[in-house]
Design brief:
The chain has about 210 residues and is of the alpha+beta class. The chain is about 40% helix and about 20% strand. The protein is elongated, with a radius of gyration of 27 Å. This is MULE domain-containing protein.
Amino acid sequence: MPDGSLVVMKLHTNHERENNDIQLVDNLKNILKRRAASESTQLKLIYDEECRRQPLSANLYPWSTAESLMRLARRSFMPPLPENLQQLAIIFENGQLPRYNCCDITIFRSCVQDIDGKSNMIFACPGLTQNISNIDIEELHVDGTFKVIPARMGYQMLTIHVMIQNYSIPLIFVLMESKTRNAYDTVFHYIKNNILTNVSPTIIIT
């Protein structure tokens, strides 16, 4: 300076901004991993929701990068693939599959065995079935399919629909190891006594 004083020049750096960006991305990644592991929501929907909440982070961490992280988190949280329906039922009973909930309650209702020793896993939303029980249901539709069952587990998926104002609403899902009369008797006995206790349809279509 003209007066002989010294001025210390300090270089401008981007370190502070870079550190802040890293923190933003880390926070977003942690949230995405947690939700991917604990929810059954589609991964892209989770990502989009969090990006709307954290737009700055979204610009730094695109879906193309986040997808693999989220898939790994979801896969690592899953228990080993069971070998049969009884093992799968135990996993549900132990609370190891919390993502399969409806109205914050597990959709797994029970695993019942028929007199032949065949297992049948029954799923239904407790809230929905409770509401249905308060409606005068006259017609049920029962449909069986063999195309959507897990590998090595089950013979068919049985779906029970209720008819309300000409709309068919899927209500109960059953993974069955057989389709014998004994199996059906066991399944419908459980449903009648534990799920649709107040429902007495006059028409059942199969």
